[in-house]
Amino acid sequence: MSGKIKKTSENMSFSLSRWFRRISTNAPSTMALTFAGISYAIFLFGGGLYTLINKPLPAFYDGSKFYFLYPGLSSQFGADTIISVALYAIGFAGVLALYQSTKNAAKPRQAYMLLVVGVALILMAYIFIEGAILAKMG
């Protein structure tokens, strides 16, 4: 009887060690890590940490119009964060389109279209971010 229990415990420890080895050596894909890192950077650049810590108003209504962008550089509304994160994400999508256009050298038409889309997205994000900053400055 004790031999049977010993064999079961040996098998159990082997299966547990195999399970532990499988979990400890399992690594997330580089694509998932890259996406998580870039998402975190866009979140920080957009002012997400400020929004989480200070919990500002989402927007402001003064009786005649809505303010989605805070009218100064010293603070921000929640909508400021959403707008800037969206614009940074659009700019990053443009960078990805530019990168994909370099990988499609064998298909010039597709490479050119990706190049145009990438440049358009980057310019659009830049122009709108600059416009938002100018609107905040008054």
Low-pLDDT ranges: none
How much β-strand is present in the residues? under 5%
Structural class: mainly alpha
Compute the average pLDDT. 87
* Number of separate helices: 5
Q: Can you count the beta strands?
A: 2
Rounded to an integer, what's the Rg over CA atoms?
26 Å
User: Could you state the oligomeric state of the chains shown?
Assistant: single chain
Layout: helices, strands, pairs:
Blueprint: H1 2-25, H2 30-45, H3 48-54, E1 60-61, E2 66-67, H4 78-103, H5 108-137
Antiparallel strand pairs: 1-2
Helix pairs in contact: 2-4, 4-5
Folded structure, characterized:
By secondary structure, the chain is mainly α. It has a domain at 46-137. Helices cover 75% and strands 3% of the residues. The protein contains 5 helices and 2 strands; from the N terminus they run αααββαα. Strands 1-2 form a two-stranded antiparallel sheet. Strand 1 and strand 2 form a beta hairpin. Helix 2 packs across helix 4 (78-103). The radius of gyration is 26 Å and the shape is flat. The mean pLDDT is 87.
